[in-house]
C-alpha cells in the first residue's frame, strides 16, 4: 500500500466525522431509548447511561497517551475497530437473559473508544490540513457530525421501531439495528485504512519527547486552576445545564411511556421522527442563530437571553405532561421549541468555554473545560430517573424548571469581557 502524505479532504473528512458522531449518539441517546423499550426502569436507565459520560469527563487525563504513543491515524483505526466490536457485542447480547449487564459492558467499550477517537480525530484533522483547509472544511465536519446525529437518533431509531412493529420482537429489532451499525464500522475501518493520508506530522513520538511533553501537560492543568475566579467559572459550567441534564435523560422515556404511567405512549418510530429529525433541525437552527447573534453584538449582550432560551422552553414538558396530548403535530412543535431554545442557549455555553480557554494552552484548557461540561451533564442525569419515579412526570418537569434557578444566580458573577465574540469593526488608521 502506497503511503500518501495528503489526499483530497472530501474523501475522508465527511466519513471521519460521521464515524465520530455515530458512536456518541448511540451511547448517549439511543441506549436510553433501547433500554426503555426493553422495560428497564427510568431509575436504572438514567443512572447507568449517565455513567457512560465518564470517558468524556476524564478524557483530558489520557489525551497525552494518544499524542505520545503510535500515530493519530493508528488510534483512529483501532478505535473504530473497537467501536464496531462494541456495536456487535450489543447486538449479540440484546436477546440474552442478562442483557442489561452485558450490553452496558459493550456500551462502556464503545464510550471509551469513542472518546479516544474524538481526541485522535480532532488532532488528525489539524495536522492533515493546512490553515485554509481547516477553515474551509470546518462546516463540512460539522455537517457530517449532524448527519451522524440524524442517522443515529432519527433514521436508526425509526428503523428499530419499524422492525419492532413488523416482527413483534423488540430484542430482535434492536439486534438487527446494531448489527447494521457494526457492519458500517467494519466498512469505516477498511475504507479509512486505505483512504486516510499519512501526514509527516503524524509520526510516532521519540522517547526523548516524553518528559518535556508531560511536564508541559501538567503545567497546563496548574495554570487552568490558578485562573482568576476559577471556582465561579467551574460552578457556572456545572450549573448552566443543571435542568437540561435531568431533562435529556427522561425526555424520550416520557414520550415512550404509557398513558397510565404519565407518558405520551408514542411508538419507537415516532420518537425517532420527533427527536432525530424535527428536533435536530430545530436544534441546529437555534445553534446557527445563536452564533450569528453573538457575532453581531457579543456574548455579554446575549448571555442572559441565551440562558433564558436554554431553560424556559423546558416548560413545554410541563404542558405535555399535564395534557398528555396525542396530537403528534403539537408534540413536534413543543419539542422543536425546546430544542431550538437549547441550540440557541448552548451557543453561549460553548463560546464561554472558548473564552476561558484563550491563551497559550488553549487546546488542553478547552479539553478540561469540556470535561467539566460533561460532568455537569452526568451528575444530574444520574439522579433524574430516581427523582421522576418518586414524584411522577408532572412534578418532575416542574422540579427541572426550578433547578434552572442556580444557573441564573451564578451567571451574574462570571468574568466576561464586553466585546468577546463580537465581530470587530475595521478602522482606518
What's the gist of this structure?
This protein has 2 domains: 192 residues, Growth Hormone, Chain: A (Up-down Bundle), CATH 1.20.1250.20; 206 residues, MFS general substrate transporter like domains (Growth Hormone, Chain: A, Up-down Bundle), CATH 1.20.1250. Helix content is 78%, strand content 0%.
Description:
The protein is mainly α and 429 residues long. It has 2 domains: 8-199, Growth Hormone, Chain: A (Up-down Bundle), CATH 1.20.1250; 216-421, Growth Hormone, Chain: A (Up-down Bundle), CATH 1.20.1250. Helix content is 78%, strand content 0%. The chain has 18 helices and no strands. It has helices at 13-37, 42-51, 54-57, 59-68, 72-93, 99-128, 131-167, 170-195, 209-225, 230-239, 242-256, 268-297, 299-311, 315-323, 328-357, 362-391, 393-402, 405-411. Helix 1 runs parallel beside helix 7 and helix 15 packs antiparallel against helix 16. The longest helix has 37 residues, at 131-167. The radius of gyration is 22 Å and the shape is globular. The termini are far apart. Residues 425-429 have low confidence and may be disordered.
In CATH, the architecture of the largest domain is Up-down Bundle
* Poorly predicted parts: 425-429
Specify the structural class.
Answer: mainly alpha
Question: How far is the N terminus from the C terminus?
Answer: 56 Å
Helix content range: over 70%
Q: On the 0-100 scale, what is the average pLDDT?
A: 87
Query: How many structurally independent domains?
Result: 2
Give the H and E element order. HHHHHHHHHHHHHHHHHH
Tally of DSSP β-strands: 0
User: CATH homologous superfamily of the largest domain?
Assistant: MFS general substrate transporter like domains
What is the name of the CATH class of the largest domain? Mainly Alpha
